[in-house]
Every structure is written in C-alpha cells, then in structure tokens.
Amino acid sequence: MLYVDVILPLPLDGLFTYSVPTKLEGKVQPYVRVKVPFGITKTHTALVVRSHNNAPSGDITVKDIISVLDESPVLLPQQYKLWQWISDYYMAPQGDILTAALPHGMKKEGIYRPKTEVYVRLRDEYKNERSLQNAFNILHRSSKQTEVLNTYLQISGWGKEGTVKGVTREELMNASHCNSTVMKSLVDRGIMRLYDVEVGRLNTEGEPHPENIKPLSEAQQKAKDEICQPSDVNVTLLHGVTSSGKTEIYIHMIQEAIDRGEQVMYLLPEIALTIQIMQRLRNVFGNRLGIYHSKYSDAERVEIWQKQLSDKPYDIILGARSAVFLPYQRLGLVIIDEEHETSFKQQDPSPRYHARSVAMMMARWADAKVLLGTATPSAESYYNATQGKYRLVTLTQRYKNLRLPSIQVVNVKDLRHRKIMRGMLSPQLKTSLTEAIANGEQAIVFQNRRGFSPIIECHQCGWSPKCPNCDVSLTYHKTMSSLTCHYCGYSYHMPSVCPDCKNPDLRDRGAGTEKVEDIIKDELDRGDINSHGLLRIARMDLDTTRTRNAYERIINDFASGKTNLLIGTQMVTKGLDFDNVSVVGILSADTMLNQPDFRAYEHAFMMMTQVAGRAGRKGKQGKVILQTSRPALPVIRQIVDNDFQGFFRMLMEERRMFHYPPFTRLIDIYLKHKDDATVSSAATELGSRLRQSFANRVLGPDRPSVARIKTMHIRKIVLKLELTLSLAQTRQCIRYAIDMMMKDKRYKNLMISFDVDPL
Fold first, then answer.
1. Bridge pairing between strands 263-267 and 331-337
2. Farthest-apart Cα atoms in the chain, separation
C-alpha cells in the first residue's frame, strides 16, 4: 500500500503518515497539497514530503488522505531543504515553517481558484456582415442596445484586418455608458454571449528599459569592480555612507545577473522602502520585476508563487523578509539592503528566523553572490568582514560629493534647568523647522513611539489604566479617543473622569508621534507659518499605514511636496530618499539609549545615523538637531562625527568583555502558562536541568520586562554559548531537558518557544 509523510500547518514536531486510496495513487507526488483528516472532525491542507510503501510500526490506525489538491508540485526540492534547515537551526516545528512560508490561499482546503474576468463577444451566427445586419434589424426598436453593439464593433476592431480584440463586459459597459440590464438583454436575445477568461492579478505592463540605467560615478564604479572581482568569498558587505549611491550599484549588478540568465532576490526591511525602490526598478526592468510583501492581497501572493514555479518566472523579486520563501529556479544574486535592520528578524510567531541568514544559506546552496548593503553595518556583519569571512567594500563619499549633514547636539536637560525649554521642541529645533518650511524646504521629525501618550495618570489618586491581559500600561490614542494595548490589542474608550476617584484631571505622560504632531502644529503656528497655510504635516507610523496603499500615499505626497513635514517612528529611518529635506529633528535620543538591552547603543547609533542621513541628500548640506539630556556620551559624539570605526571598536571591546555576540551565540527560551506559579516552577526546573549540561552558560530563569502577554505568564532562560559548541548537540541537550521536564503532568499545557540569535 502507498503511504505519504506530510507536514500539517500546526505547531507540531515531525511528519504525519497517511495512506493513499488506490484511486488517488497516480496523483500523489512529493510537494503537492493534500486534504487530510485530523482528529475526530477536523481536516487540514497538508504538504506531501515523500511517498513510500512502509507501513507505520506499532498498533497505529492510519487514515486515508481525502483528496489531492494539485496536479504538479507547489514547492521546489531546494525549498524543502531550506525549510528543514530553518526548522533545525531556529528550533521550530516544520508546521510553523509551512504556515509562515505558504501564502494563506495555498493553505485553504480546496484548490486555489485563479481570478477570472467576464468577456463579451458576438455569437457565432452573427460573425459575418450579412448576419450582423440581421442583428441590427432585430435591435431597431432599441437605440441603447444598438449603441452597445456599435461600440463593441468599434473597440474590438471587428471587420478590420487581424484578430478581433477581446472586450471585457466592464470595458464595453463603460465605453457605451450602459447598465447591466441592457447587457443582459443583448445576451437574452442571443446576439452576444458572455464567457470567463482567466486573468492575472499581477501587473505585467511595462517593457524593460535598460537604457534608463544611469552611469556610475568613479567611486561607485570602483566599488562595483571590487564587488565583482573573483573570490572564494561569495558574501560582500558594501559599507557606504547615506546617499552614496548604493542602489545604483545594485541596479548595474542586477542587469548583469539577468544577462547571465540568473534570478535576483532583492530584500528590503520595510514595505515603506519597497515603494520607493519599486518605482526606480520598474523604470529599468519593467515587467521582469515582481513585488512580494504582506500588504499584497493573498490572491496576488499566490499568483506570484505560481508564476515563480512556471517556465516564465520573474527575473527579480523585490520584497520584505517573507520573499525568502518564494521559489527561485536559478538564483544568482541576493541583495540585502539595509542589512542591519532588525525588521529582517521575525519575532512572533514562530519560526523566529532572520531573513538575512536564511537568504545567505539559500545563496550558498545555489552558488549565488550575496551583497549586503548599509550605511551602518550590524556588529555581526562588520565583524565577519573584518575577519575575512565577508569581503568588505566601502563608499566613503556621497553621490556627486554632497556633504553629510551637520549634526547639532542640544542639551535638553540644561535648557529645561535654565527654563529655556518647557515642551518637547528645543528653540534650536523650532527655529530650524520654521526656517525650512518658510524657505519651501521639507523636514522630518523622528520620535520612536506611536500613539499620543504611553501613560495616562490621574493627578489626584495616581490611577493609571493597565491592560487586563498584559503587564503593560495602555497607550492613549487621541484621534480614536481610545486606550489601547500594543501587545494584545485590548482597547476601550478614554474615560472623562478617573474611574477610581471620579476626578476629571487626567494627565498624559510622555509623547508619541500623535502628540508630537499636535505640539508641532501649536508651536510652529506661533511662528506665523500655519496661519499662512505653509505647514502641511504627514505622520507615518503603524496607525497611519494599516491599509495597503497608505505607505505609497504618504511617501508620494511627501516626495511631491504636497506635505512638507513628516513625523514618524523608525519607519522614516529606513533609507527613504527625498530631494528637498533640509532639516531632521531627533526628539529623544535618550529613549533609545536607555533600553535594558545589550544592543541598545548599537540600535540607537544605527537609527540616529540613518535618520540623520535623510537630510540634505540632493541639495545643500542638511541640518540635524539631536536632542538629548546626556550629550557627553561617547556614542553621541560618534554619531555627530559619523565615526563608525570608533563606535565599532568600542562596541567590540564591550561585547568581548561581557561575552556577547559576535563572540558568543545566544538562545532565548520562553516558557508560557496561564498560571504564574506553574510557569515559575517549570522555569526553575528547566533551568536546573539545563545547568547539568551547560553549567554557568545558563542565565535565569527571569521575568522579562513584560512578564504577562495575552493572559500568559512568561519566564525567560538565556543560553550564552561559545561559537565552538556544536549546535546539533546543543539542540539535542535542550530537547532532552525539556522532554524530561514535560513528563510532569503539571506542565501538560505549558508552552515553550525558542529564539535563536535574538535581536
């Protein structure tokens, strides 16, 4: 009898075996989807990994698959190999990989249906001139139907040399200004007929225009030549200052890869950045470019997946981290732009993979080149480059020798002490913003917190709203007049009085982007800018970019000058390119520097350097106002001087001294349970068992900074491991310790997850 081993879209380890009914044996093959029963009443869409004739051992009842959903495989063999690697390295069930990798439409029960559109044409008996005249005679009392028929003949090209053009029902109704009743009458009279045509949801317009590729400057050409030199090292780190022209180098390399018949994967950390780069790439590569990210509809992502499996796949895929899961038949070049960005790391849910690492593994197996581009390399990547594991290529000057922005550090502690500054905007920042707007220039203000205020507090009794499901305060969102948890989504209407003491004096503490917008409108209005209609503000954060086209609208409005002041979270730091930005304000450097994380300074240096780089990119030298209460910190001076080398040396000394990456490897283990005592007991026991294998490499268990999320109490154990330790043996020891602990029935509902190489 034939059996299949399948992956189920569930967070379960291992494969599941089903039998194949005789009538379906000819349809089953590796990497097709099958509908299978699971449990008593449920069914799932599973993926076949292999077929065989080996019946499972033991007294096990094997169920039949219900149906086969595909005529051909939906996965390439190298993709499943990658899934296995991700599952093994990141300690995630293969079911989680399937859930993350396949578009949702391919996980539904039933066969995915492509999009169709209704077309209209003459019935066969009216295809010559004599019979067509009969049709007009039939319609002589109906002027509207006659008009529709005439319109069809005109736009279809009927009677002219060549093939009659297909006409959609919608196109004909629009051109003839008729309604569906008129169309139905023509069909009922037997003059026209409707038929469905399968159409793609993907944009296929636009021929490639390689002539639009711009020539490289001398510095860019030198960097490209270094990247392309033959070498045993396939990974190159391109360290170029902001606005040095890295994207133009990418475009030249993409064209050369396409000329060699290779495919290119171009990864970006944010959808917002994808919008701008997409326009530049389409101008050159036209319909050879495919876009893949979470804002695309599920149906569109399914069609891209199917196209990549076809004999005419896209030559270039531009996308966010999920693009690593697409099929690539002839991958030759991988570009990871802004490689330092933490957005490449999937946080929740499992698998907690890093797209940079996954893409590099794909490239290794495909013998493809990898290009990592950034103005602020991650500590791990730059360390690998200094050790010879990656090739290092640098671009030290901006395109056309534009100067880097001047950075002015403002000591807000001193200004407040001297009562010169009371709100969030220093006099220096207000003056700079006012001058920029008055001169017809643009500005960006960076505040890495969304909402209006993170804390609401009763001035009389100290009441502050907390999430009932998570150990966090609720954030006030003024536009929605709501208090919202940014972890679980719990929300309720902002009260007008304190629920405890009924005092109406509720005050907000701290500020998010929404409040910053209000403050800027109020403060700059005093400078007589707003009253003249010069100030046009846009805000870019998670709250304003929830819809598919929101990113594009905000970015295009700012790029075209419809808005001239952009307030945003870290979204505005990620490589966006605007011609007319002369001023950038960083409101609170301290918020980033004060995080309880060994990577806090690294992330702060990257974000502030990146957002500073948005200023003065195409015109005069830009200005950055950096507000902090600790201007004497070495990292602040290194940001001002654009001293990455000095910052990196300082960082490596600290990391080496305290045994942190890149000198060690970290694995975070999270335990979750609805009962705090149970998870505490389990964490203590697991920590003890792990110490039997890893000794003092085990840190914790501890409560994380947010110790309850979605009603689940959390404990965290950290393993700090030498790079020389075998990962396979490490995983084996961890699994053994967990298996032994889970024999205790108290822990049957305990949830355990892993974060390998956490950020």
1. parallel
2. 95
End-to-end CA, the chain: 48
**Beta carbons of 481 and 473 less than 8 angstroms apart:** no
- For residues 610 and 407, the answer to whether their CB atoms sit within 8 Å is no
| Dist CA 149 CA 167 (whole Å) | 12
Q: Which of 526, 606, 524 is nearest to 565 (CA)?
A: 524
User: Cα–Cα distance between 494 and 485 in angstroms, integer?
Assistant: 13
Q: What is the DSSP string of 213-226?
A: PPPPPHHHHHHHHH
With b for 16 or more beta-carbon neighbours within 10 A and e for fewer, the 558-574 pattern comes to bbeeebbbbbbbbbbbb
Residue corresponding to tokens 């360390």: 383
Condensed to tens digits (0 to 9), the pLDDT of residues 377-430 reads 999 999 999 999 999 999 988 776 677 889 999 999 999 999 999 889 999 999
Return the structure tokens found at 439.
């001169």
Spell out the long-range contacts of 154-161 with Cβ–Cβ below 8 A and sequence spacing 24 or more: 156/121, 158/122, 159/129
Band (pLDDT 50/70/90 cuts) for residue 618 is low
3-state secondary structure of 517: helix
Residue 650, Ramachandran bin (φ over 0: left; ψ between -120 and 50: alpha; else beta): alpha
| 430-435, Cβ contacts within 8 angstroms, sequence gap of 24 or more | 430/523, 430/524, 430/527, 432/583, 432/585, 432/623, 432/625, 433/520, 433/524, 433/565, 433/583, 433/585, 434/524, 434/527, 434/529, 435/583
Contact 474, 460 (CB under 8 A): no
The predicted model gives 546-560 an average pLDDT of 81
> Do 743 and 686 form a contact (C-beta atoms < 8 A)?
no
Over the range 381-406, which residues count as b (16 or more CB within 10 Å of their CB) and which as e? bbbbbeeeebbbbbbebbbeebebbe
Q: Which phi and psi angles does 485 have, rounded to 5°?
A: -90, 125
Answer whether residue 277 shows pLDDT above 90. no
Indicate the angle between helix axes 427-438 and 513-525, nearest 10 degrees. Answer: 70
**pLDDT, tens digit (0-9, with 9 covering 90-100), for 717-752:** 999 999 999 989 999 999 999 999 999 999 999 999
Question: How long a stretch of residues is the chain?
Answer: 759
Q: What is the DSSP string of 535-591?
A: --EEEESTTT--STTHHHHHHHHHHHTS--EEEESGGGGSS---TTEEEEEE--HHH
β-bridge partners, 46: 34
CA distance 712 to 708: 5
Residue 272 DSSP SS3: helix
What is the chain's mean pLDDT, rounded? 90
Question: Which two tokens mark 414?
Answer: 């001193």
CA distance 361 to 184: 57
Would you call 471 helix, strand, or coil by DSSP? coil
DSSP category for residue 534: -
* Maximum mean pLDDT: which of 172-176, 394-398, 573-577, 650-654: 650-654
CA distance 307 to 104: 16
User: Which residue from 72, 73, 96 is spatially nearest to 84, judged by alpha carbons?
Assistant: 96
CB 679 within 8 A of CB 724: no
What is the tens place of the pLDDT at every residue in 283-339?
A: 999 989 999 987 777 888 898 999 999 999 999 999 999 999 999 999 999 999 999
C-alpha distance from residue 156 to each of 161, 196, 552, 553, 707 (Å): 12, 17, 35, 35, 66
| The pLDDT of residue 531 is above 50 | no
